[in-house]
Amino acid sequence: MSTPYANSLVTVVSTSNSFEAGLVKAMLADEGIPSFVEDANGPFPGLSAVPCSLMVGSEYETDARRLIDEHEARRLTRVDEEIA
Q: CB–CB of 55/38 below 8 Å?
C-alpha cells in the first residue's frame, strides 16, 4: 500500500459495491478527509464477490465516522418521509 498513513489505516465502511465506496470517499474528500479504497475486485469492475473497504488514517476516524453516520441519518429520514 502506498499511502502516507499505511501503518495506521482504519476501515470506516465496508461495502460490496465499489461505486458506493467511491461516493463515500468523495463525501469525505469534500470535508478534507483523505481516504483510501481497498477493492479486491478492482480487476473485475461490477463484481461484488469480496467487500470493498474504505479506510482513513486513524487520526481521521472519529470525524469520518461522524460524517458517515450523519449522512446515513439524513438518508433514512428522507426515506421515512417518502414512505409516509
A: yes
